Fold these 2 entries.
Entry 1:
Amino acid sequence: MNAEDIVARILAAIPGARVETEGSDCSFSVRVVSQVFEGQNLLQRQRPILALFKEEISAVTLHALSIDAKTPDEAAS
Amino acid sequence: MKTTDKIRKQLADNPLILYMKGTPTLPMCGFSSKAAAALKGTGYDFAFVDVLMNPQIMQALPEISDFPTFPQFFIRGELIGGSDIIEAMLANGELQPMIETALDSEST
């Protein structure tokens, strides 16, 4: 998988989010900043994002995807 | 026993359970290693299942938990998260009291 695909898929699901990726091939870490995370715990934030890549993860074309999901306020502090 | 029933029984029988790649003493993946280390850091005993040795569980659990990656840590049958969530909750002090509360309500 490439970084552009990952960013595009997250943006389609969370419009207006700020998305940054690090990594390559089968291992990525992603930082997502969006107001939608307000009031959600870490699991609630990660679950819908991981679900976008469910097939790649189970096929192991994506081995690891670390997600750092923050609200704009949290990202600023 | 069907795999899904087996998983549900494991979740019901073990207040703290970690599904991981490898074992706490011999983890086979960096993320599983971090998760096991963080849980050891709480000082509580936890059950574990090596999903590499149980490919059917490795395949079935993500459907049950609605979470695609391993490790996965559960308290009283409820998914808490993977390695980064466990580490974050250990660091911010949420994990220890959550486990204590779960074990207290277990014994009463």
Entry 2:
Amino acid sequence: MTAEADLAIIAEQEKKLVFDSFDEDTAYEIGSTIREVGKAIGKGLVAGVFTWDRTLFWGATQGSTSTNWSWATRKVGLVKVMFKSSYRIVLERGDKPRLLEPQWGMDTTEYAIAGGAFPIRVNGVGIIGAVAVSGLHERDDHEFARSAIARSLGHGAEAFALPPA
Amino acid sequence: MTTTDDIAKVAEQERLCTLKGFDETTALAIGTRIRELASAAGKSLAIDIRFWNRQLYFYAMPGTSPDNIEWIRRKSNFVRRFNRSSYSQTLRLENAGKSGFAFDDGVDDMEIAAHGGSFPIRIEGVGVVGAITVSGVPGRYDHGFVVEALCEHLGIDYRPLHLE
């Protein structure tokens, strides 16, 4: 698995995983799916579903801490500004330091370059929010979010999956 | 028309003016149309269309001032917090004989204004993703410009929804 291969798949994920509608029930379904999967494998993680003005779902499993809250919301911040999944931004950075460039004027308490936040795109509207996971390796955080979104859209959990690392 | 009638009519405007989609192109079209309506009426407006994470359209007509931008900010914050038009709040307060938010509403007057002119962008099956806001004339008429442009865009007859 190379970064280039992952990037190609992630571009496909972002293109295909698009909603016709997305409401509070959709958010609950996605968030609770992630939380249940995390619990089933015994991992401490948090799952959040956000629109740009509010939190629609927040859940945590045992073993997660407030630092996961910070990571999740800062990853969502990155999606909010860049309109790409945060893991795609990580991979596109390549060998460059995983730091917000000073000239971007982005506060590290609000944004983080780390994988795990996936855009919620609605047909005819655009990106209205993001699903974020924190607690696993960032590639897995990303995949947990992607998988729950894919299931909610009626695809299988493995639809557009990244290959095993 | 009583205030109660107006409240019902504004609720009807909000119910009917629900969109199936709304993107950057829609914002430009509606913003431009509001500007045309204002020009034709000989009014100066500042016009703002935003999603909650970014501004999609802004235009300030000659005769407006920085104060209009502040009003837009505070009125659109009302829609963001309450997900209904800011004029609906003006009417509710009027109906209750109140001049503003109550202390225990926890609403900061510096951030949120209950004055007409900001209207929700509500998407069917999604919710309120942003606001269309106008400032330049009294709130009731700011509100009217937005609703008229939205009705035209949606192919809805504005006349029965017009506030006298």
